[in-house]
């Protein structure tokens, strides 16, 4: 991490979980940028709940994070050892392709905690073949936006139970590919060729994440709601599908190698935007709805993602759709 403009997580306060219990719920924390996000939160003394679909993968990630944290802790000065305390890491089952698991995950969380300080909607998929979920959404739209939206709204009572709650939506610079606003009911884009339209589906989902953060900031002004672009991170599992397409994998892997050397950042650098949004005490409610790019640098999303009428339509339609599916919300 050599870019001096990037957020430095070591400048964030270190907590003693016995005296200041700060609780985080994060999806997709078992790999990629989510893994490093969990690592730094754990190093800072946060109580972290890692939501994931496959228990064995999350448990293995938790073990690896603890090992890495111990190794880094051995490099602390005597004063740092005295003032820095590791947090906790816990697993919660959630499957973002199945909306019915979301309230159950919140219920599991609520059986252990009475407040939530930070929610990080980190999990996502990218550029995958067309698929419709059992809930009736295109899979990228559901995993990247609808399920995180439902999770956020179900977590609101726990967020409002703490003093300075935050919600962090991991979006992408790829949201710019939504070159004009497409109504959310038209999010499927099941068109030929899939290799083109999958990126429009992805862009729609990630632009909606930005709009969701801005809408939440208006609906709940006491919750600091932010969205971030982590950076171009070739090491993440998001590229797995494109690395393994017969006939294309050699071309795509070569292209990814060029991107990695020119504009790519590491998984740990990719976690910095999320970490700033989650931990930086200098961020306040005046920053509500804002967007940060690689390294935690403040930026402006596309005009499509920022336009108020688009934000309102995205919010309204998706809330109506969730309510039609039996999920109800008590808005203040």
Automatic annotation (TrEMBL):
For this protein, what is any one GO molecular function term?
oxidoreductase activity
Family matches, as PANTHER family: RETINOL DEHYDROGENASE, WW DOMAIN-CONTAINING OXIDOREDUCTASE
Name recorded for this polypeptide: NAD(P)-binding protein
Q: What family does this chain come from, according to its entry?
A: Belongs to the short-chain dehydrogenases/reductases (SDR) family.
Keywords from the UniProt entry: NADP, Oxidoreductase
| Presence of the UniProt keyword NADP in the record | yes
Species this chain originates from:
Spathaspora passalidarum (strain NRRL Y-27907 / 11-Y1)
Q: List the taxonomic lineage.
A: Eukaryota, Fungi, Dikarya, Ascomycota, Saccharomycotina
In terms of Pfam families, this protein maps to: adh_short
**InterPro entries per record:** NAD(P)-bd_dom_sf, SDR_fam
Task: Name the domain of life.
Answer: Eukaryota
